[in-house]
Amino acid sequence: MKKIFMILLMATMVFTFAGCASDSKSTTLNVYNWGDYIDPEVIKDFESEFDIKINYEEFATNEEMLAKIQAGGTSYDVIFPSEYMIESMIQRGLLHELDFSKLDNMKNIGSQYQNLEYDKDQKYSVPYLWGTMGIVYNKTKVSDSVDSWDILWNPKYEGQIIMLDSPRDTIGITLKKLGYSLNTKNPAELEEAKQALIEQKKLVRSYEVDTYKGQMIAGEAAMSLAWSGDAMLLMSENEDLAYAIPKEGTNLWFDCMAIPTTAAHKEEAEIFINFMMRPDIAARNSEYIKYSTPNEAALELLPEEEVNNEYLYPKGDLNKLGEVFTDLGEFTTEYDRVWTEIKSY
Protein backbone atom coordinates (compact mmCIF):
# COMPACT_ATOMS: atom_id res chain seq x y z
CA MET A 1 0.00 0.00 0.00
CA LYS A 2 2.85 2.31 0.88
CA LYS A 3 4.40 1.57 -2.49
CA ILE A 4 1.12 2.20 -4.32
CA PHE A 5 0.64 5.44 -2.40
CA MET A 6 4.10 6.66 -3.40
CA ILE A 7 3.45 5.81 -7.06
CA LEU A 8 0.15 7.66 -6.96
CA LEU A 9 1.81 10.61 -5.23
CA MET A 10 4.55 10.80 -7.84
CA ALA A 11 2.02 10.58 -10.66
CA THR A 12 0.04 13.40 -9.10
CA MET A 13 3.21 15.50 -8.85
CA VAL A 14 4.03 14.86 -12.52
CA PHE A 15 0.60 16.10 -13.59
CA THR A 16 0.85 19.05 -11.23
CA PHE A 17 4.24 20.11 -12.55
CA ALA A 18 3.09 19.52 -16.09
CA GLY A 19 0.17 21.86 -15.43
CA CYS A 20 2.50 24.45 -13.91
CA ALA A 21 4.86 24.18 -16.87
CA SER A 22 1.94 24.73 -19.19
CA ASP A 23 0.79 27.77 -17.21
CA SER A 24 4.29 29.29 -17.25
CA LYS A 25 4.66 29.24 -21.02
CA SER A 26 5.49 32.68 -22.31
CA THR A 27 3.14 34.72 -24.48
CA THR A 28 3.73 34.67 -28.23
CA LEU A 29 3.62 38.14 -29.75
CA ASN A 30 2.76 38.37 -33.46
CA VAL A 31 4.86 41.12 -35.07
CA TYR A 32 4.28 42.20 -38.70
CA ASN A 33 7.03 44.35 -40.19
CA TRP A 34 8.67 45.32 -43.46
CA GLY A 35 11.29 42.97 -44.89
CA ASP A 36 14.76 43.19 -43.30
CA TYR A 37 13.62 46.04 -41.05
CA ILE A 38 14.96 45.10 -37.63
CA ASP A 39 18.24 43.83 -36.23
CA PRO A 40 17.53 40.07 -35.73
CA GLU A 41 19.56 40.13 -32.50
CA VAL A 42 17.12 42.69 -31.08
CA ILE A 43 14.32 40.15 -31.34
CA LYS A 44 16.41 37.55 -29.50
CA ASP A 45 17.28 40.04 -26.77
CA PHE A 46 13.63 40.99 -26.29
CA GLU A 47 12.58 37.34 -26.01
CA SER A 48 15.31 36.66 -23.47
CA GLU A 49 14.69 39.79 -21.38
CA PHE A 50 10.90 39.57 -21.16
CA ASP A 51 10.22 35.84 -21.68
CA ILE A 52 7.87 36.74 -24.54
CA LYS A 53 8.20 34.81 -27.80
CA ILE A 54 8.12 36.70 -31.09
CA ASN A 55 6.38 35.29 -34.14
CA TYR A 56 7.84 37.56 -36.82
CA GLU A 57 6.35 38.00 -40.30
CA GLU A 58 7.20 40.40 -43.11
CA PHE A 59 5.26 42.38 -45.73
CA ALA A 60 6.38 44.22 -48.87
CA THR A 61 3.86 47.08 -49.09
CA ASN A 62 1.46 48.96 -46.83
CA GLU A 63 -1.42 47.72 -48.94
CA GLU A 64 -0.38 44.10 -48.46
CA MET A 65 -0.25 44.66 -44.71
CA LEU A 66 -3.69 46.30 -44.65
CA ALA A 67 -5.26 43.48 -46.66
CA LYS A 68 -3.82 40.90 -44.25
CA ILE A 69 -5.14 42.78 -41.22
CA GLN A 70 -8.60 43.13 -42.76
CA ALA A 71 -8.70 39.48 -43.81
CA GLY A 72 -8.19 38.30 -40.25
CA GLY A 73 -6.69 34.90 -39.63
CA THR A 74 -3.56 35.99 -37.76
CA SER A 75 -4.12 38.42 -34.88
CA TYR A 76 -1.11 40.67 -35.25
CA ASP A 77 -0.08 42.48 -32.08
CA VAL A 78 2.43 45.00 -33.43
CA ILE A 79 2.53 46.37 -36.97
CA PHE A 80 4.79 48.90 -38.73
CA PRO A 81 2.65 51.00 -41.13
CA SER A 82 3.80 54.12 -42.93
CA GLU A 83 2.29 57.52 -42.17
CA TYR A 84 -0.53 57.56 -44.74
CA MET A 85 -1.53 54.03 -43.78
CA ILE A 86 -1.65 55.04 -40.11
CA GLU A 87 -4.09 57.80 -41.10
CA SER A 88 -6.18 55.38 -43.14
CA MET A 89 -6.28 52.74 -40.40
CA ILE A 90 -7.31 55.33 -37.79
CA GLN A 91 -10.23 56.37 -40.00
CA ARG A 92 -11.20 52.73 -40.49
CA GLY A 93 -11.14 52.08 -36.74
CA LEU A 94 -8.37 49.48 -37.09
CA LEU A 95 -5.91 50.79 -34.48
CA HIS A 96 -5.92 50.77 -30.69
CA GLU A 97 -5.20 53.96 -28.80
CA LEU A 98 -1.86 53.46 -27.04
CA ASP A 99 -1.45 53.68 -23.28
CA PHE A 100 1.42 56.15 -23.07
CA SER A 101 1.67 55.68 -19.30
CA LYS A 102 3.34 52.38 -20.27
CA LEU A 103 5.51 53.98 -22.96
CA ASP A 104 7.93 56.03 -20.88
CA ASN A 105 10.58 55.81 -23.62
CA MET A 106 8.42 58.09 -25.77
CA LYS A 107 10.42 60.87 -24.09
CA ASN A 108 13.31 59.91 -26.37
CA ILE A 109 11.40 60.77 -29.57
CA GLY A 110 12.15 64.24 -30.92
CA SER A 111 9.28 66.73 -30.78
CA GLN A 112 9.56 67.43 -34.54
CA TYR A 113 8.52 63.82 -35.17
CA GLN A 114 5.43 63.93 -32.96
CA ASN A 115 1.85 65.10 -33.55
CA LEU A 116 2.30 65.06 -37.31
CA GLU A 117 -0.64 65.26 -39.69
CA TYR A 118 -1.20 61.51 -39.92
CA ASP A 119 -1.66 61.17 -36.13
CA LYS A 120 -2.28 64.72 -34.94
CA ASP A 121 -2.94 63.90 -31.30
CA GLN A 122 -0.26 61.18 -31.17
CA LYS A 123 -2.71 58.60 -29.85
CA TYR A 124 -2.27 55.63 -32.15
CA SER A 125 1.36 55.34 -33.18
CA VAL A 126 4.98 56.05 -32.34
CA PRO A 127 7.65 56.82 -34.98
CA TYR A 128 10.11 54.02 -35.70
CA LEU A 129 12.29 55.21 -38.60
CA TRP A 130 12.11 57.96 -41.20
CA GLY A 131 13.80 59.03 -44.41
CA THR A 132 13.51 60.30 -47.96
CA MET A 133 13.00 58.95 -51.46
CA GLY A 134 15.73 59.58 -53.99
CA ILE A 135 17.86 58.10 -56.75
CA VAL A 136 20.72 55.71 -56.10
CA TYR A 137 23.04 55.65 -59.11
CA ASN A 138 26.29 54.17 -60.35
CA LYS A 139 28.87 56.91 -60.92
CA THR A 140 30.70 54.80 -63.51
CA LYS A 141 27.53 54.42 -65.60
CA VAL A 142 25.87 57.84 -65.17
CA SER A 143 27.65 60.80 -66.76
CA ASP A 144 24.86 63.36 -66.26
CA SER A 145 24.14 65.40 -63.15
CA VAL A 146 21.62 63.58 -60.95
CA ASP A 147 19.71 66.57 -59.61
CA SER A 148 16.27 66.08 -61.15
CA TRP A 149 13.69 63.31 -61.48
CA ASP A 150 13.97 63.95 -65.22
CA ILE A 151 17.03 61.71 -65.44
CA LEU A 152 14.77 58.68 -64.93
CA TRP A 153 13.26 59.57 -68.32
CA ASN A 154 16.61 60.02 -70.13
CA PRO A 155 16.71 57.63 -73.14
CA LYS A 156 20.49 57.39 -72.76
CA TYR A 157 19.88 54.98 -69.87
CA GLU A 158 17.35 52.73 -71.59
CA GLY A 159 17.25 49.33 -69.90
CA GLN A 160 19.39 50.65 -67.04
CA ILE A 161 16.64 52.26 -64.92
CA ILE A 162 14.87 50.47 -62.05
CA MET A 163 11.59 51.81 -60.66
CA LEU A 164 9.84 50.78 -57.46
CA ASP A 165 6.91 48.39 -57.73
CA SER A 166 4.94 50.67 -55.42
CA PRO A 167 2.15 52.92 -56.76
CA ARG A 168 2.33 55.72 -54.20
CA ASP A 169 6.12 56.02 -54.48
CA THR A 170 6.52 55.77 -58.24
CA ILE A 171 3.47 57.85 -59.11
CA GLY A 172 4.44 60.26 -56.33
CA ILE A 173 7.89 61.13 -57.69
CA THR A 174 6.38 61.49 -61.17
CA LEU A 175 3.91 64.03 -59.81
CA LYS A 176 6.81 65.91 -58.18
CA LYS A 177 8.68 65.85 -61.52
CA LEU A 178 5.64 67.47 -63.13
CA GLY A 179 5.41 70.12 -60.41
CA TYR A 180 2.38 68.67 -58.62
CA SER A 181 1.71 67.46 -55.09
CA LEU A 182 2.36 63.78 -54.53
CA ASN A 183 -0.98 63.77 -52.68
CA THR A 184 -2.97 65.21 -55.57
CA LYS A 185 -6.61 64.28 -56.07
CA ASN A 186 -6.78 66.14 -59.35
CA PRO A 187 -7.74 63.60 -62.07
CA ALA A 188 -6.01 65.60 -64.81
CA GLU A 189 -2.71 65.72 -62.89
CA LEU A 190 -2.91 62.01 -62.13
CA GLU A 191 -3.61 61.26 -65.80
CA GLU A 192 -0.56 63.32 -66.81
CA ALA A 193 1.59 61.31 -64.41
CA LYS A 194 0.19 58.08 -65.87
CA GLN A 195 1.10 59.12 -69.40
CA ALA A 196 4.60 60.08 -68.28
CA LEU A 197 5.15 56.68 -66.69
CA ILE A 198 3.78 54.88 -69.75
CA GLU A 199 6.22 56.85 -71.91
CA GLN A 200 9.04 55.94 -69.53
CA LYS A 201 8.20 52.23 -69.48
CA LYS A 202 10.32 51.36 -72.53
CA LEU A 203 13.37 52.66 -70.63
CA VAL A 204 12.68 50.67 -67.45
CA ARG A 205 14.71 47.58 -66.71
CA SER A 206 12.24 46.34 -64.07
CA TYR A 207 9.85 47.33 -61.29
CA GLU A 208 11.15 46.05 -57.94
CA VAL A 209 10.75 46.42 -54.19
CA ASP A 210 13.75 44.60 -52.70
CA THR A 211 15.62 42.75 -55.45
CA TYR A 212 16.87 46.00 -56.99
CA LYS A 213 19.43 46.13 -54.18
CA GLY A 214 21.38 43.15 -55.49
CA GLN A 215 21.30 44.52 -59.03
CA MET A 216 22.69 47.89 -57.95
CA ILE A 217 25.43 46.32 -55.81
CA ALA A 218 26.43 44.08 -58.73
CA GLY A 219 26.56 47.05 -61.11
CA GLU A 220 23.85 45.61 -63.33
CA ALA A 221 21.86 48.85 -63.58
CA ALA A 222 22.71 52.54 -63.82
CA MET A 223 20.13 53.92 -61.39
CA SER A 224 17.11 53.10 -59.28
CA LEU A 225 14.49 54.78 -57.17
CA ALA A 226 15.51 54.10 -53.58
CA TRP A 227 14.63 54.89 -50.01
CA SER A 228 17.45 56.74 -48.28
CA GLY A 229 18.39 53.95 -45.86
CA ASP A 230 18.57 51.38 -48.64
CA ALA A 231 20.79 53.76 -50.59
CA MET A 232 23.19 54.13 -47.64
CA LEU A 233 23.35 50.35 -47.29
CA LEU A 234 24.05 49.91 -51.00
CA MET A 235 26.74 52.59 -50.95
CA SER A 236 28.48 50.73 -48.15
CA GLU A 237 28.58 47.65 -50.38
CA ASN A 238 29.68 49.35 -53.61
CA GLU A 239 31.84 52.48 -53.59
CA ASP A 240 30.70 53.36 -57.13
CA LEU A 241 27.19 54.13 -55.89
CA ALA A 242 25.86 57.54 -54.81
CA TYR A 243 22.52 58.99 -53.70
CA ALA A 244 20.71 62.16 -54.74
CA ILE A 245 17.52 63.92 -53.66
CA PRO A 246 16.14 65.74 -56.75
CA LYS A 247 15.54 69.48 -56.65
CA GLU A 248 11.79 69.17 -57.38
CA GLY A 249 11.32 67.73 -53.88
CA THR A 250 10.81 64.29 -52.49
CA ASN A 251 8.65 62.12 -50.27
CA LEU A 252 9.47 62.58 -46.62
CA TRP A 253 8.27 59.36 -45.04
CA PHE A 254 7.75 57.96 -41.55
CA ASP A 255 7.31 54.33 -40.57
CA CYS A 256 5.63 53.78 -37.23
CA MET A 257 4.73 51.15 -34.65
CA ALA A 258 1.06 50.58 -33.87
CA ILE A 259 -1.31 48.01 -32.39
CA PRO A 260 -4.29 46.72 -34.42
CA THR A 261 -7.67 46.50 -32.71
CA THR A 262 -7.58 42.75 -33.40
CA ALA A 263 -4.42 42.31 -31.29
CA ALA A 264 -4.66 39.54 -28.71
CA HIS A 265 -1.81 40.83 -26.51
CA LYS A 266 -2.01 44.61 -26.22
CA GLU A 267 -0.14 44.78 -22.90
CA GLU A 268 2.80 42.76 -24.25
CA ALA A 269 2.67 44.75 -27.49
CA GLU A 270 3.22 47.96 -25.52
CA ILE A 271 6.14 46.34 -23.70
CA PHE A 272 7.66 45.57 -27.11
CA ILE A 273 7.06 49.09 -28.47
CA ASN A 274 8.58 50.65 -25.35
CA PHE A 275 11.58 48.33 -25.67
CA MET A 276 12.03 49.40 -29.30
CA MET A 277 12.16 53.07 -28.19
CA ARG A 278 14.96 52.39 -25.72
CA PRO A 279 18.01 54.39 -26.88
CA ASP A 280 20.37 51.42 -27.19
CA ILE A 281 17.79 49.36 -29.09
CA ALA A 282 16.79 52.23 -31.39
CA ALA A 283 20.46 52.88 -32.15
CA ARG A 284 21.11 49.23 -32.96
CA ASN A 285 18.14 49.07 -35.33
CA SER A 286 19.08 52.32 -37.03
CA GLU A 287 22.68 51.26 -37.54
CA TYR A 288 21.67 47.82 -38.79
CA ILE A 289 19.06 49.09 -41.27
CA LYS A 290 20.84 52.38 -42.14
CA TYR A 291 17.68 54.47 -41.78
CA SER A 292 17.25 57.64 -39.76
CA THR A 293 15.98 57.33 -36.22
CA PRO A 294 13.62 59.87 -34.62
CA ASN A 295 15.04 58.79 -31.25
CA GLU A 296 17.21 61.71 -30.12
CA ALA A 297 18.74 59.77 -27.23
CA ALA A 298 19.79 57.06 -29.71
CA LEU A 299 21.67 59.61 -31.86
CA GLU A 300 24.26 59.95 -29.13
CA LEU A 301 25.05 56.25 -29.49
CA LEU A 302 25.43 56.21 -33.28
CA PRO A 303 28.69 56.67 -35.21
CA GLU A 304 29.45 60.33 -35.85
CA GLU A 305 29.69 59.80 -39.61
CA GLU A 306 26.10 58.55 -39.70
CA VAL A 307 24.66 61.38 -37.61
CA ASN A 308 26.51 63.92 -39.79
CA ASN A 309 25.38 62.32 -43.05
CA GLU A 310 23.22 64.97 -44.75
CA TYR A 311 21.19 62.34 -46.58
CA LEU A 312 20.30 60.51 -43.36
CA TYR A 313 19.83 63.62 -41.23
CA PRO A 314 19.21 66.65 -43.49
CA LYS A 315 19.77 70.02 -41.90
CA GLY A 316 17.09 72.70 -41.66
CA ASP A 317 13.32 72.56 -42.01
CA LEU A 318 12.22 69.06 -43.00
CA ASN A 319 9.02 70.43 -44.53
CA LYS A 320 11.10 72.20 -47.20
CA LEU A 321 12.72 68.93 -48.21
CA GLY A 322 9.52 67.30 -49.39
CA GLU A 323 5.98 66.21 -48.67
CA VAL A 324 4.60 63.54 -46.36
CA PHE A 325 2.12 61.11 -47.89
CA THR A 326 -1.47 61.58 -46.70
CA ASP A 327 -4.34 59.13 -46.91
CA LEU A 328 -6.18 59.60 -50.20
CA GLY A 329 -9.41 58.03 -48.97
CA GLU A 330 -11.65 56.79 -51.74
CA PHE A 331 -9.38 58.42 -54.32
CA THR A 332 -6.87 55.63 -53.61
CA THR A 333 -8.82 53.51 -56.10
CA GLU A 334 -7.85 56.00 -58.82
CA TYR A 335 -4.15 55.53 -58.04
CA ASP A 336 -4.64 51.76 -58.07
CA ARG A 337 -6.40 51.96 -61.44
CA VAL A 338 -3.67 54.13 -62.91
CA TRP A 339 -0.96 51.81 -61.60
CA THR A 340 -2.69 48.76 -63.09
CA GLU A 341 -2.92 50.53 -66.46
CA ILE A 342 0.76 51.48 -66.34
CA LYS A 343 1.91 47.97 -65.46
CA SER A 344 -0.32 46.29 -68.05
CA TYR A 345 0.46 48.73 -70.89
TrEMBL record:
It holds the Pfam family SBP_bac_8. Its main location: periplasm. One of its GO terms (biological process) is polyamine transport. It is found in: Periplasm. Residues 1-18 form the signal peptide. Keywords: Periplasm, Signal, Transport. This is Polyamine transporter subunit periplasmic-binding component of ABC superfamily. It comes from Acetoanaerobium sticklandii (strain ATCC 12662 / DSM 519 / JCM 1433 / CCUG 9281 / NCIMB 10654 / HF) (Clostridium sticklandii). The lineage of its organism: Bacteria, Bacillati, Bacillota, Clostridia, Peptostreptococcales. The gene is potD.
